[in-house]
Amino acid sequence: MKTIHLAAAALAATGTLAHAQDDREGWPESFTVGTASQGGTYFAYGSGWANLVADELGLTGGGEVTGGPMQNMALVHTGDAQFGMTTMGPAAESIAGTNPIAPGMTMDNACAIFPMYQTPFSVTALSSSGIESIGDIPEGARIGFGPAGSTSDTYFPRMMDELGVDYERRNGGWSDLGGQLQDGLLDVIAFAAGVPVPAVSQLEVQTDVNIIEFTEDEQQQILEAFPVSQFEIPADTYTTLDGDARSVSMWNFAIANCDLPASFVNAVVDVVMSDNDRMVNIHRAARSTLPENWDKNAGVLPWHPGAARWFEENAGADIPADQIHGG
């Protein structure tokens, strides 16, 4: 208890009295947020909010490199990570027991805590390749789909199959794949990540790239076949774009182990959701990290009680009791 009292005194001294006065019984002294590979949006965004929460609540915490949404569901479910981030598709598969990391395990002890942003699916190639559309991708193209088990690796190969693309599948972290594309070891990278993707922004600085959008027909075909929404990558996302780029997307949510104290999770959500400007300074994708987007969970994940209380009290959320863990 001595550590808790000292932390509370320090917080009061730094002006974060509201959080210091919370009931801190059972709070961890440190925490980790499962993100994804370096060079991707998950790592930048997740490490950013982890550091923000740690600073505001007087705890030790940070982002951890992982394999992405599928692995994060497993880590948070088992309690090996207190927090993580996932996408609605992998979340649904994990709860259904079809997560490839642990087939047959129903990962229902990972709870939703706040909406993050939409993950667009986009394709990048070097301008020198001559690939300007999905139809231009040559037979047997070497395509980097991101880390094994990531949202991109789970869904983008299926999308390419749906669109009739013949390819060799390659995996790796986004920064590594960006280097391979630049070195001619890959023909295409198929990104599923919040925009701007750091690896794409870095490529733009170093070489000429084509950011390839879907045609209207391709977009419609994917919308009919997968749990995604229509999306346009704004023109100001990358210097390469002359206009908005047609895409599809999945929503991302931050998750917590359902057994964490409600007061702790409530305080974490308050730090993240109460000042959007701070989050946007961490990553531009956080422009969608807004209270009104609580409904994008759409019943896929159970809500953590501490998070549900925050959205009910601050965003007018009407979350059914049977969608709240333990409710």
From TrEMBL:
Residues making up the signal peptide according to the UniProt record: 1-20
SUPFAM superfamilies in the cross-refs: Periplasmic binding protein-like II (SSF53850)
Alphabetic keyword roster: Signal
Domain of life of the native organism: Bacteria
InterPro entries: TRAP_TAXI
UniProt keyword Signal, yes or no: yes
PANTHER family: SLL1037 PROTEIN (PTHR42941:SF1)
Protein name, per record: TRAP transporter TAXI family solute receptor
